[in-house]
């Protein structure tokens, strides 16, 4: 499948910018990293030396942002001040797009976890209305991420059908997390490849890939604190074969390995993307 590259805000392979590795990245800026991503909540209104450090990166790399706390599916009123802050932040730093989790993380307060939204038609309409409001305020489309979840609250619809219905109803885009497909497929007993094939090619803006924790043979926990595992690498290669070499960001939030090891995973993304390019051209 050869899809228009104009749908992608960035290209190549990216790395999540985290404060513990910022100084290392500044000391030796990696050429293999094509773009970066941060959570806006961690950087909005940050000034002084740390603010200058962030500006150093945004002047050198294309950036996207991935939100943590908008709680797009939550029962509490939408945090419109956060949306306004994000709009200003994106303009200040030339940030190319904003994505959020298709989940909720609070009601009367912040839960600091991503809770699953019931897979129902009612929830589709509720979430879509809130997404449309965010897009109206930002004056641009946003992308939603398929999230990992552990105890579904209502499965009237399948996970894939729910994701597709929200994207359609809200008229928004998708940031597809490959590792979350692997984690959920093991925890909930479905075929990860079949799920991946159900995702709408024309709405995909970029991919995430990350590592997870093996709690048990049938239980995986999405931690972003380990190396990417073989099953996720294979599903990423399958996704490139199907969708083409979609821009892909490596997430690592803690338990950082030596920088060479981390960048080795970025290079592996680029290798898989290169391998997918001839097939993409042939299928065009």
Write the layout of secondary structure elements.
Blueprint lengths: L12 E4 L2 H9 L7 E4 L9 H11 L4 E4 L13 H14 L4 E4 L2 E3 L3 E6 L5 H18 L4 E3 L13 H12 L2 E5 H11 L3 H6 L6 E6 L3 E4 L2 E3 L8 H14 L4 E3 L8 H25 L1
Parallel strand pairs: 1-2, 1-12, 2-3, 3-4, 4-7, 7-8, 8-9, 9-12
Antiparallel strand pairs: 5-6, 10-11
Helix pairs in contact: 4-5, 8-9
Please give a structural write-up.
The chain is of the alpha/beta class and 284 residues long. The chain has one domain (5-283): Divalent-metal-dependent TIM barrel enzymes (TIM Barrel, Alpha-Beta Barrel). The protein is 42% helix and 17% strand. Helix 4 (121-138) crosses helix 5 (159-170). The longest helix has 25 residues, at 259-283.
Task: Kindly summarize this structure in a few lines.
With 284 residues, the protein is of the alpha/beta class. It contains nine helices and twelve strands.
Task: Pick out its properties.
284 residues, TIM Barrel, two-stranded antiparallel sheet, 42% helix
The total domain count is 1
CATH topology, what is it called? TIM Barrel
Shape: globular
**How much strand?**
15-25%
Order of helices and strands: EHEHEHEEEHEHEHHEEEHEH
Structural class: alpha/beta
Number of E-type strands: 12
In round numbers, the mean pLDDT is 89
Q: Could you list the spans in which at least 5 consecutive residues all have pLDDT below 50?
A: 106-113, 279-284
Strand order of the largest sheet: 1-2-3-4-7-8-9-12
Distance between the termini: 6 Å
CATH superfamily: Divalent-metal-dependent TIM barrel enzymes
What is the CATH class? Alpha Beta
Percent helix: 40-55%
The helix count comes to: 9
CATH 2nd-level architecture:
Alpha-Beta Barrel
Radius of gyration: 18 Å
Largest sheet: 8 strands, parallel, barrel
């Amino acid at each position: 499948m050869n899809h228009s590259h104009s749908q992608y805000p960035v290209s190549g392979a990216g790395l999540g910018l985290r404060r513990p590795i910022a100084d290392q990245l500044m000391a030796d800026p990696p050429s293999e990293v094509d773009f970066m991503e941060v959570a806006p909540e961690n950087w909005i209104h940050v000034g002084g030396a740390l603010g200058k450090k962030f500006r150093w990166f945004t002047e050198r790399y294309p950036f996207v942002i991935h939100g943590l706390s908008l709680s797009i599916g939550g029962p509490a009123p939408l945090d419109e001040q956060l949306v306004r802050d994000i709009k200003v932040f994106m303009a200040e730093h030339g940030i190319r797009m904003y994505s959020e989790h298709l989940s909720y993380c609070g009601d009367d307060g912040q839960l600091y976890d991503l809770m699953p939204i019931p897979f129902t038609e009612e929830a589709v309409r509720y979430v879509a209305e809130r997404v449309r409001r965010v897009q109206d305020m930002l004056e641009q489309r946003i992308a939603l991420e398929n999230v990992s979840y552990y105890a579904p609250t209502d499965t009237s619809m399948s996970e894939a059908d729910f994701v597709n219905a929200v994207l359609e109803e809200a008229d928004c885009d998708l940031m597809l997390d490959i590792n979350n497909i692997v984690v959920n497929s093991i925890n909930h007993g479905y075929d990860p490849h079949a799920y991946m094939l159900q995702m709408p090619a024309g709405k995909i803006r970029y991919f995430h890939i990350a590592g997870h924790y093996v709690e048990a043979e049938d239980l995986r926990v999405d931690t972003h604190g380990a190396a990417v595992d073989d099953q996720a690498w294979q599903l990423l290669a399958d996704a490139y074969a199907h969708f083409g070499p979609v821009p892909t960001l490596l997430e690592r939030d803690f338990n950082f390995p030596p920088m060479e090891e981390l960048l080795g995973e970025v290079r592996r993304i680029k290798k898989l993307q290169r391998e997918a390019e001839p097939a993409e051209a042939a299928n065009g």
